[in-house]
Structure formats: structure tokens, C-alpha cells
Amino acid sequence: MPAAQKGYFMAKYDLVVIGAGPGGYVAAIRAAQLGLTVACVEKEAKLGGTCLRVGCIPSKAMLESSEKYHEVGHTFATHGIDVGKFSLNLGQMMARKDGIVSELTDGVAYLFKKNNITRYHGHGRLAGPGKVAIEPGDGETIEIETTHVIIATGSEVATLPGVEMDWDRIGGSTEALSYPDVPGHLVVIGAGVIGLELGSVWKRLGAKVTVLEYQPRVLPGLDVKMGKRAHSIFKKQGLEFKLGVRVTGARVEGDSCVVEAEGMEPITCDRVLVAVGRRPYTDGLGLETVGIELDNRGRIPVQEHFSTSASGVYAIGDVTVGPMLAHKAEEEGIACVEHLLTGYGHINYDAIPWVIYTDPEIAWVGQTEEQLKEAGIPYRAGSFPFAPNGRAKALGSTDGLVKILAHKETDRILGVHMIGPRVSELIAEVAVAVEFGASAEDIARSCHAHPTLAEVVKEAALAVDGRALHR
Ligand code: FAD
Ligand code: NAD
User: Fold this and answer.
1) Which atom of ligand 2 is the closest one to the Cα of 318?
2) Which residues of 236-250 are buried (b: 16+ CB within 10 A; e: fewer)?
3) 2 to each of 36, 127, 139, how far by Cα in Å?
4) What is the mean pLDDT of residues 344-350?
5) Cβ proximity of 193 and 254 under 8 Å
6) 170 CA to middle of ligand 2, Å?
7) One-character DSSP codes across 33-58
8) 326 Cα nearest atom in ligand 2
């Protein structure tokens, strides 16, 4: 425990980071690398934030395990593997997931030690200019001084009016990552990223899954063509969708839940996952002590280089404007700290990849066709399916395609959209291409190993110029 926590003296740091999620902990490490004295305040016992504890990592562990379970029952036989009788050991699946989370959160604690970052466990808040107060939960308050503060307090589950959350049967993603048994019938409210990822997990493990979505389509932010393709694939997998549905209420009744929506008979089910977005988390942060006001969506507004309206106070990650993604938070943390020390910090919001880890995966970077049309930007599109690709056939995963959108005159890549096997990895190539301002021709002329899924990216780039080879 740091000396300041024992009340011996008021510690002073160059930088205090509030929140140890991917934004906060990475900012703390980068600042320490650059020679600052750094403290990080985290209210949870484990470091790593939403992402490591109850977000990216446990959800991907469950996606992976449930995919394997599904494969044993559905695709092993086609490979000539007869496994006979098999069964689900959900306890072991959860234990594996929890083990991965622990390894990674312990890894952050190790990195803090290695980089001499002082860790404070407790709720942190601004206590006037240059001061941060910490409440460890034992009734005491510790105050520390600092030249700079980075707020990286992340986000929390958004709820819906009329939906009575008991944070058990009617809960959010955190509950859905730890159900004690497979629900007979799970209703998911929201066909966004969490709804489809966690809906897929429980569908594969045997639940009937009904997804209720307010918009007339699934994944509303996605390129329309890719969204339609995704919808039809998920339907084939057995997920049930009710689109254009406005949920008006949900409540627990005995051992069941009842979900009500306009124009629909009430649904009785075993569990409800509310996945209608996340909202910035700023509870008890003392923003008023330095004069920071939230915007109309509850976010901390930032100007250039993540500075807030208060001198020396910065905000990064989910708590501020922009996509709620772990890698966006990380990049902002690094750019914020580097700008503070060197006067230069870089983040290119046009080159931030998105990935949805369903099966098949969905990934994209840059603009959609609809956005380009709306902006009046002339473009050429080239697409190529996974179906004829040798590696995809060997994997037994041929659903999907890659679509590249390039400027009609300059050929510069403006957007890339993928649905298919392992596109979470393929998207890195095109994110780098977008960052470097590459043309579709650049990708088309680059040698891609054979047989790989990446050949589909090359073919899509060739298709922009109407000269795909294997079609
Ligand atoms: P957070 O990770 O939310 O961290 C904020 C931290 O601040 C928390 O640990 C919190 O306890 C702490 N804190 C808050 N207030 C205080 C305070 N006053 N004092 C002290 N500590 C405080 N993103 C991806 O890019 N890829 C994915 O695959 C992905 N999967 C996800 C799956 C799920 C189920 C969920 C819920 C989210 C997922 N996300 C994913 C989103 C990702 O988790 C967030 O974008 C990311 O964690 C944001 O990082 P952050 O550092 O801004 O905030
Ligand atoms: P989301 O914004 O992805 O999807 C929410 C969905 O709920 C939308 O389709 C929206 O139209 C719908 N909706 C909103 N109100 C509704 C209502 N009243 N009735 C029915 N549907 C309604 O949000 P999410 O899935 O909760 O995820 C939150 C965020 O977490 C994501 O936006 C993303 O930033 C992050 N996340 C990322 C990943 C990843 O990168 N793989 C995974 C999980 C979460």
C-alpha cells in the first residue's frame, strides 16, 4: 500500500489516471515510460477495466468455447472425427474464462509494478485543481496532488425505461457472461454488438434466443449490404429476430421474465439480456470542483488533444466522444500522454477497425457505401467471396465476402467491409493500408501467401479494377 494511503504524507505525482481500463492503464504505462511519476486510481480490486474484467476478454473466451462446443456437434463429423456422446460442462467453461481474466488482470498489476506506477484501490474523484481524492471504502479519504489528471472512467450498461433490471434474470452483459445454467429461452433486447455476440454464445450452448431490435435491421451502423448478409447468416444459425420493435417493459415473474413491446404479444422467457448500448460513467467524479460540464449524452467533452474545459484535466476512452472500443481508448491514452510530453500525439479516427466476433466474424474500417453516397464521394467497389478460397474450404467456413471501397479517381481506400472466417485478423492489413493512405492497387500488387484467407482481400482489391482472378 502506498505511504499516502497510510496517511503519512500527501503524495504528489506528475500524472494521476482515474480508471484502470485499457485507456487508463495504457496511458499510465506510456507516461511512466516517458519518465513521469504516475499514480492510477481504480475502484475495482482487479485492474483492466470493463474490457478485461467483464467485456472484451471474457466474452471472447465464451465465444471461443461455445464455438468449439458447437463444432463438436455440427462439423466434426464432416472432418471424419466421431466423438460419440459428449456434453457441456458449463462450470468448467466459466472457470476457464475466469482464469483467462485473472491472468490478464494480474498481468496489468505486474506491468504497474514494473513501471513504478503507484496503484490506489478506491473510488477516485477530482477535489479541485491539482487534487484527487480517493475513498478506499473504509470511511477514510486520501488526498493526493498532481500536475495532470486523465479521466478514463469508462462506461456502464444503458438501461431502458420500463425494463425492471434485477441484475440477475433481467441483466446486462456482465450477468450474461456468467449465467449459472443455459437458459431455456433468452430474450436479447438490442441487435447490436453485444446482443449478437452473447446471443450467439447462448444459442450455441443450446438456448432458444429471440433478439428484439428497435431499428428495422440488425447491426444498424453496419454497411447495409454486409448487415443484410449478417442477418441472413444469423437467421440460418437459428437466432430469431423481431425487428422494428420498441420494447416497453420487462419484469421478473416468479422464475420467469415477461417482455412487452409495441405491436407484439408479450414474451415469457427465462432470462433477458439488455444490450441497448452503454453510457459514460461519471458517478461521483467531482467534475463540478473543476467546472467540467457533461454534454447532452453524458460524455465529458474534449477539445484538441483530449483536454477538457479544466486546465490540466484530460478525458479518454468510453467516457468521452467516439466509438466505445478498447483499442480506441488505448490509442487515445497514448496520444494524450505523448502530446502532453512531446507536443505531438497521433490518432487517426478514420483508421480505427471494428470487429464483431460472431461466426462468421464481421469487421470493417473506414466508411460505408451509404456514408460515401451521402457525402457525394465518387467511389468504386470491389468484392470477393470466401466461397472459392482454398483455405476457407479447408477450414469449412466459406460464408461471407470482402468488399473494398476506393476513391473513383485516386483509388485511395476509403472503406473495407468483411464478413467471413477470421476477418478479425484480416482487418489489420487494411487498417494499416488506410493509415498509410494506400490505394486498392497497392493491396492488389502486394504478394499474399497461398493458401490463406488474406487472398480474398487481394482479390477484392483486384475486383475494384474489375480484374479479380479466381472468379
Ligand atoms: P473501462 O474499460 O470501462 O475502464 C474504466 C475503469 O474505471 C473501470 O475499471 C472502472 O471500475 C474505473 N472507474 C470508473 N470510475 C471510477 C472512479 N471514480 N474511481 C476509480 N475508478 C473508477 N471493445 C473492443 O474493442 N473489443 C471487444 O471485443 C469488446 N467487447 C466488449 C464486450 C462487452 C461485453 C462489453 C461490455 C464491452 C466490450 N468492448 C469491446 C468495449 C470495451 O470494453 C470498452 O470500450 C473499453 O473497456 C473502454 O475502455 P476505458 O478504459 O475507456 O474504460
Ligand atoms: P450497440 O450500440 O452496439 O447496440 C445497441 C442496439 O440496441 C442497437 O442496435 C439499437 O438500435 C438497439 N436498441 C436501442 N434501444 C432499443 C430499444 N428500446 N429496443 C430495442 N432495441 C434497442 O450497443 P451494445 O451491443 O450494448 O454494445 C455497447 C458498446 O460496447 C458497443 O457499441 C461497442 O462500442 C462496445 N462493444 C464492442 C464489442 C466489439 O468491439 N466486438 C463487443 C461488445 C461491445
Assistant:
1) 34
2) eeebbbbeebebeeb
3) 17, 19, 17
4) 94
5) no
6) 16
7) HTT--EEEEESSSSSSHHHHHHSHHH
8) 40
- Closest ligand relative to 358 C-alpha: 2
Residue 3: pLDDT band with limits 50, 70, 90: very low
Pocket test for ligand 1, best of 47, 52, 153 (most atoms within 8 A of CB): 153
Provide the pLDDT confidence category of residue 315 given band limits of 50, 70 and 90: very high
What is the spatial distance between Cα 291 and Cα 105, in angstroms, rounded to a whole number? 33
Whether 409 has a pLDDT exceeding 70, the answer reads: yes
At 253-275, the pLDDT tens digits run 999 999 999 989 999 999 999 99
d(Cα 404, Cα 417) in Å, to the nearest integer? 7
Tell me the CA–centroid distance for residue 3 and ligand 1, in Å. Answer: 28
403 vs 102: CA distance, rounded Å: 38
Q: Which ligand is nearest to the CA of 174?
A: 1
| Catalytic (active site) residue 450 | yes
Ligand nearest to the CA of 362: 2
CA distance 310 to 317: 18
* Residue 99 CB neighbours (<10 A): 11
Confidence of residue 435 (pLDDT cuts 50, 70, 90): very high
Return the closest-CA partner of residue 38 out of 149, 152, 151, 129. Answer: 149
Q: Catalytic residue, from 74, 346, 450, 470: name it.
A: 450
Measured in angstroms, how far is the CA atom of residue 155 from the centroid of ligand 1? 6
Beta strands 185-189 and 240-243 are unpaired
Query: For residue 121, with 0-12 CB atoms within 10 Å meaning exposed, 13-18 middle and 19 or more buried, which class applies?
Result: middle
Distance CA 383, CA 242 (A): 29
Find the 18 Cα to ligand 2 centroid distance in Å: 25
Q: What is the pLDDT of residue 6?
A: 47
Atom of ligand 2 nearest to the CA of 325: 34
Nearest C-alpha to atom 23 of ligand 1 is from which residue?
A: 325
Domains of the chain in sequence order:
3-55+93-157+279-347 (3.50.50.60), 170-276 (3.50.50.60), 351-464 (3.30.390.30)
Find the 286 Cα to ligand 1 centroid distance in Å: 20
User: What is the residue with the minimal CA distance to atom 19 of ligand 2?
Assistant: 214
State which ligand 2 atom lies nearest to the alpha carbon of 261: 19
Cα separation, 460 vs 471, in Å, equals 11
The bridge status of strand 142-151 relative to strand 155-157 is unpaired
The C-alpha cell at 155 is: 462506461
CB-based contacts of 403, cutoff 8 Å, min separation 6: 223, 225, 226, 381, 382, 383, 416, 417, 418, 460
Residue type, 306: F
Is residue 331 within 6 Å of ligand 1 at its C-beta?
no
